[in-house]
Design goal:
Layout: E1 8-10, E2 13-15, H1 18-39, H2 47-91
Antiparallel strand pairs: 1-2
Pfam families: DUF6127
InterPro entries: DUF6127
Protein name: Transmembrane protein
Amino acid sequence: MTDPQKPALVDSMLLLRKEDFEDLLDRAAERGAKRALADVGLDGDDAAHDIRELRGLLDAFNTAKHTAWQTVIKMITTGFLLALVAGALIKFKVFGGGQ
């Protein structure tokens, strides 16, 4: 019988304790995350600062996008209201137009 504390190879399968398997997964995930950050240039001592700066830029972009849409909607609404007022003024012959 094998020791339950040690990994065992049975029928081409490696048997591990659940705790050992979870530890292996944690280390692999951490190693993969570090490699992914290094691939995009976000490793080293300045990485946290760089990520905060990127988040700030993204927030600023989203605010600008929101403001731009608000401006477009206000312009369309204002144009529509001006067209209604102009139509009413013409209809009531304020400027001598119409019939």
